[in-house]
Amino acid sequence: MSFQFIEPSQINDIIPLMQQLTSHKFSDAILKERFADMVTENYECAVIYDDHELIGVTGLWYCTRHYAGKSVELDHVIIAEDYRNKGLGKQFLERIYTYVKAKGVNTAELNTYVQNYPSHKFYYNEGFEVLGYHFLKTPQYHILFKLLRLVSDSTS
Fold first, then answer.
1. Three-class secondary structure of residue 127 per DSSP
2. What does the alpha-carbon distance between residue 117 and residue 123 come to, in Å, rounded to a whole number?
3. Cα torsion for 24, 28, 33, 36, to the nearest 10°?
């Protein structure tokens, strides 16, 4: 197994695992566009290879939080299905913790999908605590709510 950080020019190599993680929710073209933006921000991508096969990935977002200080947010964490439950996720995170600690980061945080129960157990075992909920508002909802308010105001 090889644990490493990929160069921004290699970011599209992670698309197959991202498609697996998100059940192909977004096209490859959309992911390529988004990844092109992400690599220009406070983002790095850690991967695991078994020979030349990409079997694990996580994004790392760096920031300073008022409640945690220097922090890294683990994003889109996935280990290929055939490699799960073999201790690889734990090894991967240990490498990441060591790497980010050398950068002055003292806390790690992440989001996981509500229905992804195996990940919840894994992260609890890693010492993560649930602090709150992650809310997402997309532009469509923003426009819809504005329209509903306009309609509501005009009928009042």
1. coil
2. 10
3. 100
* pLDDT tens digits for range 12-57: 999 999 999 999 999 999 999 999 999 999 999 999 999 999 999 9
Q: What pLDDT is attached to residue 133?
A: 87
Residue 138's identity, in one-letter code, is T
CB atoms within 10 A of CB 48: 22
CA distances 1 to 32, 53, 122, Å, are 26, 10, 20
Counting residues of the chain whose pLDDT is more than 70, the rounded percentage is: 90
pTM above 0.85, yes or no: no
Give the Cα separation of 68 and 109 in Å (integer).
10
Q: Are residues 77 and 58 in contact, defined by beta-carbon separation less than 8 angstroms?
A: yes
Report the C-alpha gap between 57 and 75 in whole angstroms. Answer: 9
Nearest-angstrom CA–CA distance, 12 and 10: 6
